[in-house]
Predict the 3D structure of the following.
Amino acid sequence: METLQKSNALAKVIPSSIFFILLVISLFSSWYTIDQGERGVILRNGAVLDTADPGLHFKLPVIDRVIKMSVQSRVQVYERMEAYSRDQQPAEMRVSVNYRMNAGSVAEIYENYGSEKGMTERLIDRKVYQEVKTVFGQFNAVAAIQERERLNHTVQEAIAESVQGSVTVESVQIENIDFSNSYEQSIEQRMLAEVEVQKVMQNLEREKVQAEIVRTKAQAEADARLARAEADAKSIALTGQAEAEAIAAKAAALKNNPEFVGLVQAEKWNGVLPSTMVPESTLPMLEMKK
């Protein structure tokens, strides 16, 4: 009898315990958190119901399920990607793509691709291979090497346009381009030849500048000599003119005043009489009027 009572009591306790445990589990599973840099896709009975932003949220136990998807930046690296240049030169490239899922498109991405990995494999990888090959085919081999920045920018624009809406492409880097050894050697030789041509052109330009400097200097010296000659000629002309005017003035003075000659001689006489004098001669500069 006692055993039967214990069995009945146990039969009542077990369901209650199970119910309590299920209730506790349900309570704990009815809330969830979404971290910063994530978005949640809420599924109800397997169908997409809504999305959840970062923070604390509640859901119906058992019925609802939340798939967390990262919207942070990530990088996808592609090794040994093969493509042909416009001049039909085969190349292997290492390409890295930085991208992130748009927060407002996580529900659409889940519906179309099922997961982040599915989106990467079926959307990103396919578009990257397609656009890199297409854009690389628009550049010849030399331009692909010399204009790497423009090549990167063009590839990034093409990929971003092909995945717009669901994904934001932040950057694309073609980190390395390998052509065949023979072609790389020919490119190197061509570039060396171009460098030599540039050196020759620079030397010619430098010689032109130096010749212009010499010509300018010679012209300046010639101009200076001409200026000096003109100044000398002008000085001589002025001196001659002054002397002519002085002679003319003296001639006029002699003509108008004959005694002016004696005055000049007197001014220049040093006061010494001649040592020998002819009889009946007069002293110089002292001729007497008769």
Notes: The longest helix spans residues 181-256. The beta strands are 31-34, 38-44, 47-52, 55-58, 64-70, 74-84, 90-101, 167-178. The mean pLDDT is 81. The helical segments are 2-28, 106-113, 116-136, 141-146, 148-162, 181-256, 260-268.
